[in-house]
Design goal:
By secondary structure, the protein is α/β, with parallel strands linked by helices. The protein is 45% helix and 20% strand. The longest helix is centred in the middle third of the chain and has 28 residues.
Length: 280
């Protein structure tokens, strides 16, 4: 290949890369921000449609992964909701990469090594309903201060540990109108009766529409079954628990629908659910 052709090809690649970046940045208006929780400086990511709003807003809760902000997760959530007219706020809870504090998994492992599994489980539940929830609600308070956020149309979603956080946020209320937990506690369910009882208690208290979903080959399908039955016993008619059929690729039938690549499986259901609640 001649030098001239290589130069032209390089320019074309650069132009395409720049255009792709602009296309991704433009519709989602992505911004990395910081906020405080319990004196710690934490990171969050904000996405919004073009325009001034106010927009209905999704708060997205990540799982236990150490660096949720460095992969496709948040951008992929934004790709579901921003084109549908929602702003998206994604906090990075304490100890995860970019945020101050100690990672929850390290804290749990330390207690497990020193005091055993039962103590570690009690600590896990305690951290979820205190520090982890505090971080989520601190970012919700940040979101409520933004002029483009419609504070009357706030909803919450998340997967795995983020599904636990979604249920606990729904229990708290906090201004949310609906909640969509995905695979909540599916990796932590087996043998963890303290966690199971805590989530059942949350379900009995929640007073908003909930859509709890899991992929067909999740680590455990007991969250859908047990929490769905608990909601029925408590007369929670606006609580839906659903396992998706095995019609998707195998790699998307596992925990959290295989991550960002599998979000398209629930995207339409999520938007329709939230639209129905907030009146869009």
């Amino acid at each position: 290949m001649s030098m001239h052709r290589r130069f032209r090809r390089s320019l074309a690649v650069l132009f395409l890369s720049a255009a792709t970046a602009a296309a991704q940045q433009g519709p989602f208006n992505k911004q990395r921000v910081t906020f405080t929780s319990d004196g710690l400086t934490l990171v969050g990511f904000v996405f919004k449609p073009n325009g001034v709003g106010p927009f209905p807003t999704v708060l997205w809760n990540h799982g236990s992964e150490p660096n949720p902000g460095d992969g496709p997760q948040f951008d992929s959530v934004a790709a579901v909701f921003v084109p549908a007219g929602y702003a998206v706020f994604a906090p990075v809870r304490r100890g995860h990469a970019g945020s101050q504090g100690r990672w929850i998994q390290d804290t749990i492992k330390t207690v497990m090594a020193s005091s055993g599994d039962a103590a570690a489980e009690r600590l896990m539940v305690h951290l979820h309903e205190t520090q982890q929830l505090d971080d989520q609600l601190a970012f919700l308070a940040y979101a409520k201060r933004q002029p483009f956020v419609d504070k009357s149309k706030l909803v919450v979603a998340g997967c795995s540990y983020g599904g636990i956080q979604t249920l606990l946020a729904a229990e708290r209320g906090a201004g949310f109108k609906a909640a969509m937990p995905i695979s909540p506690a599916a990796l932590s369910w087996q043998g963890h009766t303290v966690l199971q009882d805590r989530l059942k208690a949350a379900v009995r208290t929640i007073d908003m529409p909930v859509l709890l979903i899991q992929p067909p080959k999740d680590a455990s399908l007991e969250p859908v079954r047990v929490l769905g039955e608990e909601a029925k016993r408590a007369g929670k008619t606006r609580f839906t628990a659903k396992v998706y059929p095995p019609t998707m690729p195998d790699s998307e039938q596992v925990h959290c629908f295989g991550g960002a690549k599998g979000y398209h499986n629930w995207a339409k259901d999520a938007v329709a659910f939230f639209d129905g609640v907030v009146g869009r």
